[in-house]
Amino acid sequence: MKAAEIIKRREADWAKLESMCGDVLKNKNRENLQYVMEFSSLYRNACADLALASAYQLPPATVEYLHSLVARAHNQLYRGQGFSWAALYKIAFVETPRRIFADPCVHVAGIIFWGLFAIAAYLAYERNSWPEFTNNIVGAEQVEQMETTFASFSGRSWFENMFMAGFYVFNNAGIGLKVFVSMLPILPGLVYLAYNALQLGAAFGHMFHPDAGIAGENFRNFVTAHGPFELTAIILSAGAGLRIGISWLHTDNVRRLDSLQTNARRCIPIALCAVLFFFIAAFIEGFISPAPESVLVWEVKGMVAIFSSGFLMFYFVVLGYPWRQK
Question: Per-residue pLDDT tens for 206-227?
Fold first, then answer.
């Protein structure tokens, strides 16, 4: 076949590929699967045409044009995605809350934590059914130390708040990492999560009791504001770790390594959400929670807790519910 016939036969596909390069550059049809497949097919054909043009020594202008077209199509097909506020919004406020809302591992972690937390708080507050419950769960020495610490707690300086905020960031990160890692073998993680829920619930119930006196008031003033974000982050860390642990047992009929990789990608948004909530909790715990009554009354801290809880409910339930599920 003559060179002129080859060029004439393929010119229409080259022109179409060149036009599609412009559309891809403008982010048009980038998510259209059929469009991308057609673009890929034209790109492969252009690569083959370039190889034939070089082998059969077609006119230099044609070879140069194909070099340019193939390079341009390659850059558009394999180029990295630039930063997009729309894409970030979709990930943060559409995909992530829906994924967390529908994840059964997060549901299991939440039921275990809040269920045991509520039971322990009730038994520690009621004190009649099991008088030694708090001492048995938390430990008599820890209870005494907690009461002594909050009995003399009177706020901190601004510099101390900055230092403690940094400390809480690392401390919260350590808590989340321990919960996450312990969930990988599943059973130890469930036991660890249950133990922490019982300890925290017993501490809250004991310190919120009227008999706790000034220590109880200071404890209430300290934990109210940052509690919603910190406790939610613990549950998300447990859910993310449980998701990885379950992938070894429930593989959906694929190889265990493939199941692990798939579930690791699914748990990344959950883990990142937990990290963000731990950071927010550390900021509140460092600057708002320790403020004394003379600076910030408890009602204001209660409003912070209500706003935080409302935001979490809106994020996970309202945004998470698949309203327009296809």
Answer: 999 999 999 999 999 999 999 9
At residue 17, what are phi and psi to the nearest 5 degrees?
-65, -40
pTM: 0.75
Specify whether 70 is located in the same domain as 94: no
Is 139 a member of any domain? yes
325 is a domain residue: no
In this structure, what token pair is assigned to residue 239?
A: 């859910």
Both 189 and 260 in one domain: the answer is yes
Count of structural domains within the chain: 2
Handedness of CA 138, 139, 140, 142 (dihedral sign): negative
Choose one of 25, 51, 78: the last residue of a domain.
78
Nearest to 175 by CA among 116, 230, 97, 98: 230
